[in-house]
Automatic annotation (TrEMBL):
Gene3D superfamilies: 3.50.50.100. Residues 39-68 are annotated as: Disordered. Pfam families: Pyr_redox_2. Keywords: FAD, Flavoprotein, NAD, Oxidoreductase. Residues 65-374 form the FAD/NAD(P)-binding domain. Residues 48-68 have a biased composition (Basic and acidic residues). The keyword Oxidoreductase applies. This is NAD(P)/FAD-dependent oxidoreductase. Belongs to the NADH dehydrogenase family. The keyword NAD applies. InterPro entries: FAD/NAD-bd_sf, FAD/NAD-binding_dom, NDH-2.
């Protein structure tokens, strides 16, 4: 096998076995690499103790799992983000660094490359990568050859051509966006507290969230709860001064928890003076004015877009089969349909749901399936390398839980419906059990315990988004006009 260079003058250590390229460091990417690493390590210990000097899988003189496969993980970030904790990070209940899991720490047996795959030619078993090293060298992109491909790039925000959205919208898919939104909300309260202009004050205290799924509802509920608490420290801002608006294009929110729990959530939010508008779309947010399809207009400095996701663009830059929604067509064994040595799971894959009685139904693109798919995927890759039978992925959907702020939540798990404090407690217990590594579990639990003993933090660190602003000003540059403007440094 020909080993390609990662960047000019830099080549991975040669490995006599197959190279498994994992594209993406999210749920599927990290867990697949983690399971492969563990299985290979365990196999290596067994081989060294029981097959000294013998033959391993028909290759003379090769012993241990490290001879069986080399794992290369390509990820745009050096960490995996546990997205269910983003709303709590935005509310200040969890430190942002405890919402992420460092890939290099949990994957010491893998080669981790920080970058992105820009194109994949599976017929040639070649991936075109743009890494930090290749960019620094001015090389642009480099090619990397592989034997087995795992495509798990996840998804990106699905946006619509709404006027002003690109200029004023805020996303909620990354930890950076979550902390940026927290800083932004507190900054708007500071603006409202210090301005004498009623129009500026009204716009600063109006918060519009678009999308009634998990991300939108949990982000709005947690931030409203945090902002409501923060008003006790402002002499001239009261909870009733703020307008929180949830805009949903369909007739229900949180479809994952069922229709009854969805209606309960609407009642709960409206009881907190949150304006929930169903069957409504955002038509425009130009000039910091949110214009809705029902004719309402809200001057606002905050528009949070959480209206769904779409497959990662790299899928369109491959020669692999995709469905009408742009996802890879996969079999129940998590292999790409009609293609050998290519695998996928999670948001990027259309995987048939073998537990459903509904013909043609596919697994929902959520973390519950992604984590379990990753385990089966890793085992099937190893089985394929060893010439062993593959297994189908099947998992009956257990249900969903959602947080609506401190001590408030909804849940629909195994047919049982919970609301209020029991659902909130179940939400915390479930996600604490699912967040990767004991290190993160202990840190999150410690922060929850401390937050129950002390008051909430309401500090905005908006300057973190422009760390060089003060130095640029001192050196003769210009201060950013708005903290939400992008710093080109």
């Amino acid at each position: 096998m020909v080993k390609a260079e990662i960047s000019e003058g830099t080549t991975p250590a040669p490995a006599p076995g197959a190279r498994v390229l994992v594209v993406g460091g999210g749920y599927v990417g990290m867990y697949t690499a983690l399971h492969l690493q563990r299985k290979l390590k365990a196999k290596g210990r067994k081989s060294r103790s029981g097959d000294k000097g013998g033959r391993e899988h028909g290759r003379p003189g090769q012993h241990g799992a490290h001879d069986e496969a080399e794992i290369v993980v390509v990820s745009p970030d050096p960490y995996m983000t546990y997205q269910p904790f983003l709303p709590e990070a935005a509310a200040g209940n969890i430190s942002p660094r405890h919402v992420v899991v460092p890939l290099r720490r949990v994957l010491p047996g893998c080669t981790v490359l920080i970058g992105e795959a820009t194109a994949i030619d599976h017929a040639r078993r070649t991936a075109t990568l743009s890494t930090l090293g290749s960019e620094a060298e001015g090389a642009g992109t480099v090619e990397l050859r592989y034997d087995e491909l795992v495509l798990a790039p996840g998804s990106v925000s699905r946006t619509l051509p709404v006027p002003g959205l690109a200029d004023h919208g805020i996303g909620f898919k990354s930890v950076e966006e979550a902390i940026g939104l927290r800083n932004h909300v507190i900054e708007q309260m500071d603006i409202a507290s210090s301005t004498r202009d009623p129009a500026v004050r009204d716009a600063a205290l109006t918060f519009v969230f678009v999308g009634g799924g998990y991300a939108g509802v949990e982000a709005l509920a947690e931030l409203e709860d945090m902002a409501r608490y923060a008003t006790r420290y402002y002499h001239n801002v009261k909870p009733e001064d703020m307008k929180w608006i949830l805009v949903e294009a369909t007739g229900r929110i949180l479809p994952e928890v069922g229709e009854e729990m969805g209606r309960y959530t609407v009642r709960e939010l409206r009881a907190r003076n949150i304006d929930v508008r169903l069957d409504t779309r955002l038509d425009s947010c130009e000039d910091r004015v949110a214009v809705l399809s029902d004719g309402a207009r809200f001057p606002t400095r905050t528009v949070v877009w959480t209206a769904g996701v779409k497959p990662h663009p790299v899928l369109a830059a491959t020669d692999l089969p995709r469905d009408a929604r742009g996802r890879l067509r996969c079999t129940a064994r998590l292999g790409v349909e009609g293609v050998e040595h290519a695998w996928a799971a999670g948001d990027a894959a259309a995987v048939p749901d073998l537990t459903s009685d509904e013909p043609g139904k596919e697994c929902a693109p959520n973390a519950q399936h992604a984590v379990r798919q990753a385990k089966v995927l890793a085992e099937n890759i190893l089985a394929s390398l060893r010439g062993e039978p593959l297994q189908d992925y099947r998992h009956a959907y257990a249900g969903s839980v959602a947080s609506l702020g401190l001590h408030k939540g909804v849940a629909h798990v195994y047919g049982r419906k919970l609301k209020g404090y029991p659902a909130w407690l179940m939400h915390r217990v479930y996600h604490l059990s699912r967040v990767p590594t004991f290190n993160r579990k202990a840190r999150v639990l410690a922060e929850w315990t401390l937050s129950g003993l002390f008051k909430r933090e309401i500090v905005s660190l908006g300057s973190l988004e422009h760390p060089r602003a003060e130095f640029k000003l001192a050196a003769g540059g210009e201060r950013p006009k708005d903290r939400n403007d992008t710093d080109d440094t």
